[in-house]
């Protein structure tokens, strides 16, 4: 039923952003996910983030794998480029698209099954190569689409709907992203839009590999007592490291009244991430401190959310490969094939 389009009629008084679009212009088809699925809340946060950032939908490419989570790009940014790849293969297809056309903003949407099981290798290499993208995992601890088997992010000891106990150790994708070299790492909760929207905005504006693990309860198969990814569990065990505001580079920069409580992190594009630390000892620009802090809280059974790490000066794979500023897919024949004389010179240099 994913073909159901929303009516295109807009109320004439709907508020528009600076590039002339209403929020409705960032929506997609009507969702066919279960009512109350956390993934729908993430779609709503994405709509809000892109609208607030004044990004024209045609500048965005959204790619996904397979799963309920990977279906969601059909439900937002209906006017953007989209590609639903094979299970676990979103990162490599996105890497190829990004290398061919660096002018688009890349959004990778995946699930915990898609990224922590079959796609674990793909996830790892996109992070370590610094592919510029906002990589979002909608993490419910189960394979929702295939009826609720434990995924690799399910905590040891957690219970399935049918009462089975998971004995395997969990994969923590945010911790892995930090270890692999991602330059923006956050964790959010689908039920906390106030925290999630600025986290997403920061990731979209980041200059390198940005990863967000979003805990997103599956109401059909993983929202019962005994699950550690349920709405109740996350609300009870959530520990926010920071509250962030995202300030776009076009807006006037204001100074907060209590400078001691606020850290401004300027991103490569000039925009500001304003971190209001709830814990004075937490510094979001120290990768190793973030790793230790996460482990400490994990041992206490707490789920840390917020911006865990950012390198504001991050660069990406294009910088590493020294590619041309002009997107490769826009180069003409003379630039792609500089002729026999140039080839001869090149070959001579290699002899
Ligand atoms: C190659 C391949 N193997 C297995 C499957 C079956 N399959 C479809 S979705 C899925 C898991 C999805 O889990 P997740 O990524 O967590 O998404 P969710 O539905 O939980 O949002 C699996 C195993 C498949 N489609 N393709
Ligand atoms: S099965 Fe779970 S993940 Fe899939 S749509 Fe339903 S609630 Fe969401
Ligand atoms: Mg899942």
UniProtKB/TrEMBL annotation:
<keyword id="KW-0560">Oxidoreductase</keyword>
<dbReference type="Pfam" id="PF02775">
    <property type="entry name" value="TPP_enzyme_C"/>
</dbReference>
<dbReference type="GO" id="GO:0016625">
    <property type="term" value="F:oxidoreductase activity, acting on the aldehyde or oxo group of donors, iron-sulfur protein as acceptor"/>
</dbReference>
<dbReference type="GO" id="GO:0030976">
    <property type="term" value="F:thiamine pyrophosphate binding"/>
</dbReference>
<dbReference type="InterPro" id="IPR051457">
    <property type="entry name" value="2-oxoacid:Fd_oxidoreductase"/>
</dbReference>
<protein>
    <submittedName>
        <fullName>2-oxoacid:ferredoxin oxidoreductase subunit beta</fullName>
    </submittedName>
</protein>
<dbReference type="GO" id="GO:0044281">
    <property type="term" value="P:small molecule metabolic process"/>
</dbReference>
<dbReference type="InterPro" id="IPR011766">
    <property type="entry name" value="TPP_enzyme_TPP-bd"/>
</dbReference>
<feature type="domain" description="Thiamine pyrophosphate enzyme TPP-binding">
    <location>
        <begin position="66"/>
        <end position="214"/>
    </location>
</feature>
<dbReference type="GO" id="GO:0045333">
    <property type="term" value="P:cellular respiration"/>
</dbReference>
<dbReference type="InterPro" id="IPR029061">
    <property type="entry name" value="THDP-binding"/>
</dbReference>
